[in-house]
Amino acid sequence: MNPKDYSSPGREAERPSRKLADFLTRHGKVRIYDAGKVVFHEGDTSHWVYIILAGEAEVLRADEGGQENVIATVGPGSMFGEMGLFHDLRRTGTIRARESLKVVVFSNDDFMDAVTKLPELTIRVIRSLSNKVVAANELAADLRSQRDRWAVAYAIVRQWPEQGERVGPEVVLDPTRISTDTGVSRPGVKAVIRELARRGAIITPNPDSSGVIRSRVDYARLEQWLADSRPDAGNPDESDAAGTHAN
């Protein structure tokens, strides 16, 4: 599956005001990165705070195989590294200039000093941290949803009577039993079954008065859906609290 972009437009950073931009350039170090240049790498130590003044950057994160994937694009006003002000964290992602990128850089100590001098900067830090917590919560919820869907579909696949047949005979799908076997809520099980029916993997589902469904299953389509929707094995942890932004 392609990684979902959790940097929703509703949480895009505001461009720095003229007053803030002037303050930042006076007190920080301005750096320019050409397109394709890396600002920092995932796993680097986090002793600096960056704020984008102009241009766009890509946020990349490595998968289990070490392949870096772009998970978000961010622009002017976006902040990186502020979590390192409070925690001794490694960078949770790589930042790479998508185009000519102008940033202002502060050491952690200098940034803490700057925050005390300009309330607007304090508000931006709070907003940035809040956005990253929201993004992390959305990511965790999405991963749980993917795992629930996969667990229910796999429980149905296990009923495949003849591995050589594309469409098996009618089977009984009991949402209560599947819920017990998988740990997915009964409404969640029924929602997955409805989705599979829309995709043609479950053919003419016919629930009885107790909610038990008798249906034929297109196991080839079901297996393909499983392959396309299988979630990653890892769990989101506190180091991912940056959401789509690297720290």
From TrEMBL:
Keywords: Kinase, Transferase. GO terms for cellular component: cytosol. Pfam families: cNMP_binding. GO terms for molecular function: DNA-binding transcription factor activity; kinase activity. Residues 33-132 form the Cyclic nucleotide-binding domain. Gene3D superfamilies: Jelly Rolls. The keyword Transferase applies. It comes from the Bacteria. PANTHER family: CRP FAMILY TRANSCRIPTIONAL REGULATORY PROTEIN, HTH-TYPE TRANSCRIPTIONAL REGULATOR ARCR. This is cAMP-binding domain of CRP or a regulatory subunit of cAMP-dependent protein kinases. It comes from Thiohalospira halophila DSM 15071. The lineage of its organism: Bacteria, Pseudomonadati, Pseudomonadota, Gammaproteobacteria, Thiohalospirales.
